[in-house]
Amino acid sequence: MNHAEWKTRRHRELLSEAAEDNPEYDRLYEETELAHDLGQMVYDRRTALGLSQTELAERCGMKQPQISRIEGGGTVPTIPLLRRLARALDADLTINLTPHSNAA
């Protein structure tokens, strides 16, 4: 379990089950989940290329702690930053909107 997952679970414990019915809690939870998923994708691609966080940071014109925060799910990068990361990772950036399925 990484730090972001621990924080999410800890917040659930502190806020109790009733907090999960709160739309603001749901929004923040989804944002945290997206940040974590993105961080995992950056980590996976970086390690597949054999790059250290410092090397990736240099390719992006960033500092190593910024890469660490992204990989840890501690921040949600802007679209321009996502483009820089994609270029530095020799990858394409694809953003999709997937419609919700309407259950009857």
From TrEMBL:
List the Gene3D superfamilies: lambda repressor-like DNA-binding domains
Q: Where are the transmembrane segments?
A: none
The family database entries (CDD domains) matched by this protein are listed as: HTH_XRE
The record's annotation in Pfam families points to: HTH_3
InterPro entries reported in the protein's UniProt record: Cro/C1-type_HTH, Lambda_DNA-bd_dom_sf
Query: HTH cro/C1-type domain spans which residues?
Result: 42-96
Q: Which SUPFAM superfamilies match?
A: lambda repressor-like DNA-binding domains (SSF47413)
Write one Gene Ontology MF term. Answer: DNA binding
**Domain of life the protein comes from:** Bacteria
Which PROSITE patterns does its entry note? HTH_CROC1
Instruction: Give the protein's recorded name.
Output: XRE family transcriptional regulator
Task: Please spell out the taxonomic lineage of the organism that makes this protein.
Answer: Bacteria, Bacillati, Actinomycetota, Actinomycetes, Kitasatosporales
